[in-house]
Amino acid sequence: MAKFYVEDRQIVIPGDLLAEGRDVLVTTPYIYKSGDKFYATIAGLVQVNPEEKRLNLVPLEGAYLPRPGDVVIGVIIDVGLTYWVLDIKAPYTAILYASEALTKPFNPVQDDLRRYYSVGDYLVAKVLSFDRTKNPLLTIKDKGLGRITRGVVVDIKPSRTPRVVGKKGSMLNMLMSETGCNIVVGVNGRVWVRCPSKELEDIVVLAIKKIESEAYTTGLTDRVRMFIQEEKKRLEQS
Amino acid sequence: MKGKTKLIKKDGTRLDGRKPDELRPVRMEVGVLKNADGSALVEMGRTKVIAAVYGPREIHPKHLTLPDRAILRCRYHMAPFSTTDRKSPAPSRREIELSKVIREGLESVVFTELYPRTTIDVFIEVLQADGGTRTAGITAASLALADAGIPMKDLVAGVAVGKVNGILVLDINEVEDEYGEADMPVAMMPSFGEITLLQLNGVLTPEEFEEALKLAEKGIRQLYEHQKEALRKKYSLQKEEV
Amino acid sequence: MSLTPSTFPIIPLVKKKSVMALLEKGKRLDGRSLNEYRPLSIELGYIPKAEGSALVRLGNTVVLVGIKTGIGSPFPDTPDEGILLVNAEFLPLASPSFEPGPPDENATELARVVDRSLREIRAVDLSKLAIIPGKKVWEIWVDIYVLDHDGNLLDASMLAAMAALSSAKMPEAVVEDEEVKLNREKLKDPVPVKHRVVIVTVGKVDGHLIVDPTLEEESLLDARLAIAVSDDGRIVGMQKMGMGTFTADEVRQAIEMAMESSKMLHQELDKALKGKVK
Fold first, then answer.
1. d(CA C241, CA C229)
2. Does C111 reach chain B within 8 Å, measured CB to CB?
3. CB distance from A227 to chain B under 8 Å?
4. pLDDT tens, A145-190?
5. Cβ neighbours, 10 Å, residue C233
6. A38: phi then psi, degrees, rounded to nearest 5
């Protein structure tokens, strides 16, 4: 018989006993099983479904771990002969080969990759592959990927990006419709904001920071909407 | 002289007024540094220790990497002004040993296999030393690891038990360490009853050791509750804003 | 900074399995039972030029300890006491894993554990080592030289240190006008040893506890617990080493094993020192 010691959406910390039983289904690497007992290994929010005997743990902290298919925002920190090295806020630096960035064949004897992208450039990229033995490989050969040339990039904790997106994109849609800005969320904890004006850009940046620091409180979408509307009002008055 | 200085008063209390099985006032706070991935401050009476965690991150030099797990790097260090006489900031033999003992006390706790080829760096600075600095250090380090979101089997809490004037006492301070007959630092994963750090500097009979271990366990359980409270506090502040 | 070492030596998985299977039956690769030491020999006076010395062989592990003495100033907090100093060198000739250079964390830890095990019970009576109280005192140097590493360096080092100290003779000290001169031609008084101490290191592997692990066994151990035991049966020091953990029950069991083995080690010390010291 599965027995649960925590409630849905409860905050737990390492060592907390979460559940007991042979038939508990765990869907995260952040829960440790010892005998028939299940313990939290990280500060996080538990998701409990007693009917399905399902147990999940959403981390509140921690590094970004790449998964193939993730859209990330990286910054170039080094350029090799045939590849760029990017910091994607993960424990591992990511590699972007010329063949995954340029449309025509690249010959390092005649050409220099710095002519295309150089150290300090932000790129929106997709994770092609990543496993325990190799650093993540990126591509920018897809729609919406490539160099960031305008707007701002906001850094937040990687564990807070789901809140910036919201349930089915609700937070993100609200942010964009309230401000008319275009926002791209890199799941590695970088958000790219493009706005019609500098003033609106500042408001969005503050709103994102507010979401980050209040990530796991209820009614957040409404509070952030109110915040944006008040800021806009203040902007109109001045 | 060891064993000859009077450290227990007539009424059975210690020089600072504590009962033999009583901890000093405890204060713990997590997330005290901005740059570190995780950090914590632990105070036990006048002992004040800060710990910071960086990582998991790539290792330089590369040859130190392990293919199947993260390595842990740990430095226990005392500030020059932490002691009565200035301590040279160069690492002493004691600090070299304690860095090792603390690292080994954390190795079995961190799920290092989740982050192969990386390092997790733990920096412990003793800001003020009044006994029990290594156990306060490992207590702070485990909080900093949790604050950094590094998966771990349990928190680690530690305390030093001593023997002064023939009596076993919990959480010894500097005077009790200096003039007492024994100093036994212990750290555990409380949820699993596993001892991750154990040293004895001093003389005990096997029976006294048995009693000392039980006393340490008692203190560790109390410190564990303080640790959990400090971590929960970080998130409960948010709730109140609702 | 202390960092996770890469494992040495690498033990093939098949071998690891056979070691584990043997342990289940209470046996070890070299035929020993779990609480049995390897053959032990203690040779005194190996370095006649030193004030005292001992070469200890524990299986294939070889440790040499030499005692040297000198005159120094006392520590301000103990003006009437001599000074005992313990140093350990893991020589590059002793193992492919040892590098030249100053003592690393393992050598430092070993020296400090030996030092504390001697110091806490006052195995050497330092109060008898003041020459001009407050000004000139004896310095007793215990230098541990690891010559061949096949595991359990700590137990072997403690035996060698104890044997060397117990058999050491200090040079004659001549006091003239507040100055002390040593007559190294004439070795006179013994180092005042009040207690003898041995260390028993208990290793834990897969829930089994063993004494005196070989290097191969050490690389399989989860953790080790060194327990220093005095000649009067008290625990005079402890150190948990290695990355794993012990439960309280395992610690109790380890202490029982250490108490038992320590009797044998004290007997061996007695045998070696009999007739050599008064």
1. 17
2. yes
3. no
4. 999 999 999 999 999 999 999 989 999 999 999 999 999 999 999 9
5. 12
6. -120, 130
Judge whether C183 lies within some domain.
yes
Between CA B227 and CA A14 the distance in angstroms is 10
Q: What is the pLDDT of residues C95-122, one digit of tens each?
A: 999 999 999 999 999 999 999 999 999 9
- Exposed (0-12), middle (13-18) or buried (19+): which is C96, by Cβ within 10 Å? exposed
Q: In this model, does residue B3 exceed pLDDT 80?
A: no
CA Rg value for chain B: 18
Per the domain annotation, does C5 fall within a domain?
A: no
Q: Any CB–CB contact under 8 A between C192 and chain B?
A: no
Those chains having 3 or more beta-carbon pairs within 8 angstroms of chain A are B
Asked if the structure places residue C2 within a domain, the reply is no
Beta bridge partner(s), residue C180: C175
Contacts of B152 in chain A (CB under 8 A): 14-15, 41-42
Nearest residue in B to A62, CA atom: B149
Beta carbons of B196 and C239 less than 8 Å apart:
no
- Please give the average per-residue pLDDT across C139-146, as a whole number: 98
Q: Out of C1, C239, C244, whose CB is closest to B99?
A: C1
Write down the domain spans for chain B. 26-241
Neighbours of A161 (CB within 10 A): 20
Query: At the fourth CATH level, which superfamily is domain B26-241?
Result: GHMP Kinase, N-terminal domain (3.30.230.70)
Q: Is residue B71 less than 8 Å (CB to CB) from chain A? A: no
Look at chain C and report how many structural domains it folds into: 1
Contacts of C243 in chain B (CB under 8 A): 104, 107-108
Are residues B100 and C109, on separate chains, in Cβ contact within 8 Å? yes
- What pLDDT digit, counting tens, does each position of A194-224 carry? 999 999 999 999 999 999 988 877 889 999 9
C3 assigned to some structural domain: no
- Tell me the helices (H) and strands (E) count for chain C, helix number first: 5, 14
ipTM of the complex in this document = 0.90
Query: Hey, what domains does chain A have and what are their CATH numbers?
Result: 3-59 (2.40.50.100), 71-147 (2.40.50.140), 152-237 (3.30.1370.10)
Residues C137 and C130 sit within 8 Å (Cβ to Cβ):
yes
User: Is C225 in contact with B198 (Cβ distance < 8 A)?
Assistant: yes
Assess C131–B contact: CB distance below 8 Å, yes or no. Answer: no
Look up the CATH number of the domain holding residue C29: 3.30.230.70
In the structure, do chain C and chain A come into contact, i.e. share 3 or more CB pairs under 8 Å?
no
Chain B CB within 8 Å of residue A77 CB: no
Cβ-proximal residues to A163 (8 Å cutoff; 6+ apart), any chain: A171, A211, A212, A215, A216, A220
Best B71, B150, B188, B229 residue to mutate vs chain A (most A CBs within 10 Å): B150
Three-point CA angle B12, B18, B23, nearest 5°: 130
Domain containing C113 equals: 12-273
Task: Read off the pLDDT band of B240 (50, 70, 90).
Answer: very low
In chain A, what is the straight-line distance between the N-terminal and C-terminal CA atoms, in Å? 64
